[in-house]
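Re: the 423-residue chain
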Amino acid sequence: MSDVKNDTLIDHAGQVRAGEEVDLAKVTAYLKAQGLDLQGEPELQQFPGGASNLTYLVRYANRDLILRRPPFGHIAKSAHDVVREAVIMRQLKPVYPKVPEIFAICEDNEVIGAPFYVMERLVGVIPRQNLQPELGLDEAKTRQLCLNVLDTLIDLHKLDPQAAGLDSLGKGEGYVARQVEGWTKRYRAARTDDVGDFEVVMQWLHDKQPQQEVAISLIHNDFRFDNVVLDVNDPLKVIGVLDWEMATLGDPLMDLGSALAYWVQADDDKFMQGSRRQPTNAPGMLTREEVIRYYGEKTGFSVANFDFPNSAITCWTSASCASTSATSPTTNAAEAWTGIEDARVTFSKPIIVWYCRTRLFFGSFRMATRAALSRSCSVAVTGTRPMNSGIIPNFIRSSGSTIASSSPTLRSSRCVIFAPNPS
């Protein structure tokens, strides 16, 4: 591929959003004090999206660096912990080379007003909603790419946390129970009067949760195609894995279930296709059933009872972070979830309604939905920042729904922020 084609495949940073500027003089002075060789006048750009931690490109004459910091404004004490993320990456790098190298970690708020870290820039292709034609991937190559991405997750799950010095990263044993109990408490605390009580759901999760994890592994907790980086000259090769903010020790099947939350395949219905943000429907991509089977074969972990991680991690955490209620005249919230036992890999429509692809809002938007389980439903969505282009319209069009919001930029509503509990 030519350099021109390469350039079109790579994500580019743009102008820094107003109010999210960073003092480059202070950053440069700090980095030089850490021993970094930086030449020339720095230039600051910002990558779009990133509603969790903010990501900047800092360009010097002799090198490009990536800076990550928490969002501006008041945040919860344990949220957006960039120092934790950087420490994980630094310790993981020697045993998992696909982690970007960390050059500096700053916990001094006096430098830019918040903690931050600086890492290497991985120049490559980040697969998003559709695979670019310039990649030249036919069906066979697309299948190999899919397997290579899955192998990247499997390699992580096979690591010895102790060898990486990360055996104290999380509590480990009892991870599944903590997720069920924790998100049950959060849902009850966040629930408003017009939302179903989900007691049937909570009871199902409590009864169906495995008594013991298949293993205690390092888990990413947000593994998906747009968190991997491909070699621009060899797009079948994974050169990086990004966004380690929610990594912890836990059941690897929960991590796989989380990854499958985004896995919309070619034969899914129109409703599902409208929420697709990854190229998992492309010819050659594995189906969810094939992913689970491949994972089980490669890891040796039993996937015979995969309905729990597949349903629990993809649905209940999102239900806990959104005030959601069914308005179908024939089906209420509790009844809708009785179909969960038959959902397993194929995802029944009630599950998708409750999941509502909340995770596509990247944690910074507040969503309150009133979704009917019939073909027509009304969805009210509110948030404090503009939506990523296409997410809301695609979701609404695909479900034959109508949307109402209090303003074009969508205002905030009472709801907890979604993020899997890393404990």
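The chain has a mean pLDDT of 74.
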